[in-house]
Structure formats: structure tokens, C-alpha cells
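Appendix B. One record, verbatim.
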Amino acid sequence: MKKFILLLFALLTVVSVSAQSRSIRGTVVSAADGEPLVGATVIPVGGGSGTATDLDGKFHLTVSNKVSQLTVSYIGMKPVTVPVQDNMTIRLEVSDTHLDEVVVTGYGTGKKLGSLVGSVSVVGEKVFENTPSSNFVDALQGQVSGLSIFSSSGEPSAVPNSIRIRGVNSIEAGNTPLFILDGAPVSSSIFTTLNPSDIESVTVLKDAASVAIYGSRAANGVIVITSKKGKYGEKAKVTLRASYGFSSMVEDKIDMMDSKQYIQFRDLINQPVSNSVRELVDNYGISTDWRDVIFDNSAPTYSVEAAITGGGDNLSYYISLNHYDQEGIIAQSGMRRTSLRANLNAKVNDWFRIGFASNLGFSRWESNYFSDNSMNNNWNNPMAMSRWMFPYQSDRYYEIDDNGQIHFGDKAQYLWTLGAFTPEYLASTRDFYRSRLTGNIVLNQTINPIQGLNIRAQQAVDAYDSRVNMIQKPQKDFITPMGHKAPASSLTGFNNQGFTRYYSFTYTNTAEYHFTVEDKHNITALLGQESIISKTNGFGVRTNGQTDQRLLMLTNGTTVAMSNISQSIIESTFNSFFFTGSYDFDNRYFFDITFRRDGSSKFAPDHRWSNFWSTGVMWNAKAEKFLQPYTWLDDLKVSLSYGTTGNSSIDDYMFYGVVGQGKNPYNGGATLGISQAPNYDLTWETVKAFDLGLKFGLFNRLNFDVDFYHKETCDMLMDIPYSFTTGFASGYGNIGSMKNVGVDVEFQADIFKNRDWYVGARVNFNYNKNEITELFNGQTEYTLANYGMQLAVGHPYGELYYVPYAGVDPRDGKQMWWDKDGNLTKVFNEERDSRLLGKGLYSPWTGGWGLDLRWKDISVRCDWAWAADKYMINNELFFVRNANMGTGNNQMVDMLNIWTKPGDITDIPAFGEEIEFDDRMVENASYMRMKNLTVQYNLPRKLLNKIALQNVAFHFTGRNLLTFTGFTGYDPEPERNLVMNLYPNTRQYEFGLEVTF
């Protein structure tokens, strides 16, 4: 009886469940050609798990009887919501994904890209996938018109030294855009701790209409990063990725002499090498290419990561874990990073939602001590050694036996020809590393008390703890296998420790109301308040004199200087109130207005608050009835905007009269004095920007985006030179102005596409003309001593300032220059004859282009970046194209063309001529570089269905594979007035695998 009752209960339960649910089958196809869509997402509206269509576009769902609709979506198609029917066929239309894409540009809810009034560019997740670089910013290079990114180092932990949008806005205040991650501002520490695969999109805001909502921090543009998130009703998906690759240095245009060439050069200048050196070269052929010795051409890189994404009725999630490890191409150089991302969103009820986003990262990196900028002309700098070391110096110890045979041994640690240690040996005596623990956490709460009203509170923290560890182990002199004494005892012990803690809390509160009148008038208004509280606390100490390699603590040092003890505490606060309003009529006429009032503790009390605003209009001409018959015209929009933004990117406390240690001791003791001149009128630097935009699309294949802009910077924040009678050399103030006028152009073409093939191309470029329009105290020019630059009204900032070199007099081998009157002279006079050269370090032309190819399951993506009319001082030439230096270090091959007798036609003067810093050191650093080449193969869908996997992809990625430039230094990319022996950029090769199930 008991068993019968249990069986009856089970049958009733089954019948009850069956009565509450039903089975739905259907097919999803393309409306254009009726072809089945594989992998389309089908989600029941109102609850239940979704599914994806199979190879034939079919799906099968079990849904509750309460479900009456399904939402169906597919990449590149317009999503639809349809009534539930059995054996249904759902046809999806092709969408203009460029216009329908929803992007977040400010504090409110996202807008469709096609409805944005401002100048905005969006870079999708495909650009960041499979990138071998440690920082995501590198992948942006060449992707957006007007966005200039330049890297000055190939070190694994390095970040670009220059990121600019539409030119240089300021001379001494910052020019870097504001970075926003998931709605909160972040510092540059995020560049190397954010896993590029976690990025869904990056939106670049360029004009006043799009950036003014960020007010005082947006003068240099805004870059909004949106991380990946799960979707409600999405089936859980796990993605595993693994990659391995290696790095080498990019092309080096300088050819250094081999041993025979160097001996010939020394003979030409009548400074012959010793007979022992000649015999070494003639008899044993020793000729070392120190570039190959110093640089590793196969420095390994590997990365592994896992991500899970999905969602239920009321919760969505995205969680990822990544480990990245890259070794550098020189000794004591490399980076390891581990990052964890978690994004959660929950519907608590119909009117309350909460969200949580976090990125936790730990990175540890080594940086070669002698590759620092302050030591770039030091023999121990690996880049300098690869140029300067004599080629007849072997990189290995050797012995010559009684029969005259040479036998090579271990790698040399000490180089006897110059009494220098190798980079590998120096690295083995040191324990130098830096580490950083970062946290970026955003928590938000949204309530919807009535339809159309969103009240949102957000709390965010951007923080890191950074540590510096620099320990030199004390060494003892040793005798090399060749019998030379190596004075290693000069490497005395020291311990240098530093710690920095930074945090920034951002509290944002907004109320946004959206409503529609008569289905044509769409109105959105947003009010907000924001506070940012930041604090940095750091200290450092160095002790010297550690004598035992086992006792290297700070307390084991015997001496410590006061100059080796430091501590800093910096606090700053921003407070803001803002409003933005948007109106559009019938999707044809758009109007935006923004107002923001900002206050900053960086400025004097009476000048802390300032107002910033913008207004913009757009006409969607294609939506007009008179253009509807022209089906070849897909899109036509004209926009106009004007507004102001502020720049406060200076150090804190610059308006204070700061008390510091006096310059002159009193009675042998320390004194106090005013170390910084006060300026209680110090206030905001302001940028006024105008933008005129035109967007149009043709034949459902071609898209054009053109923007003309004019920006004027007023009240520039600069360090102004003072009369020495004031007791100060200079002080910060608001003086001068400059302007940037230019054009952004973006073009994208779907050249050919069908079911199996796709061929696409994209091109973008920016032209920017910068001009200084006013300087301080009525000055029209101001020379920057020792920088090779002059600020001059009517000229661009960054224009180089040198004496023009006129060549070599063939009669006597002496150098000649052009004086200020245009006459030839053999007397170098820098003060009298220097002039602006019309060549600057900031390229007025920048851009990129790329190709996308796909055939069935094979795809190829190629991206290039370029810069034109870009110039730098190649300081390396002073050492390797200088005959007077030729007896102390190696020289370039073309030094064999040195003047030696009357009648020689050459640009290399005679030995004994003092080489001067003139414009012969200025080189054209224009370049075109293949930033990315990715080839990917996805396993066919039929095979994936058999092995129950959603996707398996294999890829090869090459970074910086080709560079075309006339620059002769290590790398043309740095945006600096002068380069010398910097860590060269790297060429990377990566092979990877991705599995999704």
C-alpha cells in the first residue's frame, strides 16, 4: 500500500509539472537568404533558461506555460521578440551594428551610437583578444582617429609614455585623457593589471559635447572602458585560453663596425690599435656582435586564463582569472601578473537592482637598474654597451695554447678591454624588483520608483600598494680565467626599500528621468553629484655598507644619509555638481546640453570652483522622408558642438608657499625657509572646443566619419620664470594660450561578404596643427635651456631649436654651420645662431589602417599604425658617429667615410673636430608599423557538436612584425625631444588555444 501511494504521488507530480510547462521547437534563419543561423541565442521572456541554435538553425526549449514570448538575437542581426509557437520559423534582419551598438559615455544609461551628438569612437572586444602585450593600451594604437599612442620602451612592465586625443592641449599640465573603468575614474596602474580579454569595449570621447559631463578632468578627452558582463537568462559558458610566445627587439637601423672595420677606422684617424689586438683579429677572427650578445631574441611569454559567464532570471555574472608572464629581452627585465575580475548584477525586485564590479591584480616586475633614463649614457646600460663595446672583445673567456690554438670557455663576466662587467653578471649581484597590488571596485544601487526614473548611487575605490626592493649584494675582487683582476669590490652593498599606498574613493549620485511625448519627443534629464577623495602615502630609505651577502637587511647597513630617507603625504579632493539634458524629435533632430560645476583642492581657496558646459545639435538627415527613396544612402548625419572643459593635471599644493629646508646653514645648523613661491590666484586651465561632424554610409558597405575641430587652451598652467630678486627661480601660474585645429577621418568598407567569405578594410587618420598664441609677460619667445626647444608665439609647441649644420669643408675637413644671417661659418655659436627648424617632436599626422579577411573558419586580421613629420634628437649619434669618441668605443660603419685628406667629399669631419649639438642630430622619426597580425582557425561546427564544445580556436598573433622608418636609433616610436640608449620596443610572436563549453 505504501509503495502504491508513493507511485501515485510521483505520477501526479509528473502530470503537474507537465501541465505547468511545454516544449517549443523552432528554426532561426536569415531573412536575406533563408540560411540557418548557427549559434543564435533564444531566451524565454519572463523566466527560464535560454539556448542556442544548432548547425541547422534549430532550437528546442522547455518553457513555463506563463511564458508567451521569446527573444532571439544573433551577432550582426536585429534582435526580435516573438510570440511563442511550436515549430516556428524566426527570420532575423541584418542590422547596422555600428549604429545600433549601445555605448556608455557618461553617467546615465547607455545610448545607441547612432543617436550620439558628440564625436565618439568605439573599439570592440576583438581588438583586445589575443594581444601578447601586457597592457591593453598598446592594442588601441592606430585604431581611432585623433587618438595618438606612443611607447618609449619595450620593457614588459612599461606603459605608453604618451597618450593624447587631438593634439597637445597644455605645455606643462597633463595631456593624458581621463580613463573611466565601469563608471569610475582609474589611475594608470590599471594599464598593466587589467586583462585585455576582460574588455568588452573602449569608447573614446573626443569633443566637448561628449566629454563636458566630466568637467574639470576632461580637457584631454575621455577613454571609457567597459568590462565584460554576463546576461540575464544566459546559459553558463566557460572559456579557457592558453598562449605561448617569444619576443625579440625590433629592427635596429644602426650598423656598428666589426673588428676589421674598426681596425681600419683607427688607421684612418692615425690612432692605430695595438699589435696584440691586430693579431687577435687576424689570427683568431674574433669579431663580436654585441647587439646579438646583449639582446635575447627568444625571450618567452606565456599566458593562461579562465572565464565563466552566464545568468539566471535575477542574477548575471562574469568571473575571470588570468596569469601572464613575460621575460624581457635584456638581463634583469621581466614581468608577472595575476588578475581576478568579478562582475555581478542582480535584480532584487522589480524596482531595485544592484551591481558589483571588481578587478584585483598583483604584478611583480624587474627593471634593469642601468636602463633608467638617468643612466642612459652609462657603460653598464645594456643598450649603450651593445653599441659601444669593442668588437674585438670576446663575450667568452678564452685561452691560447702553446700551439697557437684558441679555446673558448664560459661566458665572460668581466670585459678586460674596458674594465667593465657584463649585464648578466651585474644582474646576478642584485635583487631588484618592484611589485604592486591593485584593486578597482565599483558598487552601485539603482531604484526605479516610477517608469522612466532611475535613481542611482555608486561607490568606487581605485587603490594600490606599491613596493620597491633594490638590494646590491657586496662583491669581492676576483681573477678571471684569462688572468685579469676584476674589481668587483667596487660593487658595495646597499639596501633600498620603498613603499607607496594610493587610494581614491569616488562617490557618485545621479537621478535620470526619461520620457516620451506623442511617440516623437524623447527627453532625458540627469542631475548628479560626485565627490572624489584621494590620498597618497609613501616612504623610502636606503642604507649602505652591507658587507655580508647573508646579512642584507636595512639594519645591516653601516651608513644612512638624510638624503636617502623620504616620506610624502598627498591629499586632494574634487567635488562636483552636474546636469545633462538630451532631446530628440522623431529620431531626426537631436539636442544635448551639459553643465558642470567643479571644485578642486589643488587651487587657491578663492579660485577652486569653476563652471564647464557644452551644447550640441545633430540632424539625422536619413530619417527625413525625402531621403527614404534613396536606398543606396544608409546613413547621413551632421553634428555641431561647442563647450568648455578644465585641466587640473598638476601637482598638489602648487599654490602654497611651502616651507622647506633652507639653502644656507646658520651657524653650522639647518635652517627653514620658503622653498616655493605662493600664488593665491592659481586656478583652472580651460579648453574651449568646437566640433563639426559629418557621418554617412553608402550601399550598406561603406561608412565615413569626418570631424573638423578647433580647440583653444586658455590660462595655461605653467612654471613661470621669476626674477632672481624675488628669491625664487620660478613658480606656477596661469599664463598664455595655444590652439589646436585639425580633422579626424574614419573610413570602413565591407568590400565583399557572403556566407563563406568576408573582406573588409578600415582607415583612419588625424591632422592636427598646434600653435602657441600667447606666452607670459608679453614675451613672444622663450628658450628651454638644455632641451633643444623654444616656445614661440605662432609656432607649435615641441618645435626643435638648433644651429643648422652645413656639412664639412672638403679643403680642411672642418665643420661648417649656417649663422643667423644665412652665411657659412666655422665658428659654432649656439646662442647666436640657433633657430626654430620647422621640425617638432609631436607628429601632426597620425593614423592607422587595417584589413579583415575570413574564409569559412579561417580569419586574418592585420592592423597598422603610423605617424608622419615626427622628429627626435638621436643622442646616440654623438657617441657612435664621433671620431673623437672612436678610441674609447665602437663606431658606426659609415664612419669609414671620415674626412682624411683635402678633396674628400663627406659629412663626417676630420678627427679632432669637436662634435657639437646641432641639427645633424635631428632625425625624421616618421614610421609605419604593423602593430598586429592575427591568424585564427575555428574548428567546424559539425565537429564541435560531436565533441560537445561551443568553440575551439587556434591562433597566431604577431606584434610589431614590420617597421618602416628612416630613423637610425633603436626605435622611432617614443614621443620625446631626445632619445639615447632607451629599451627598444619588441617584436612578439604568440601561439594560442581557446576552448569554450
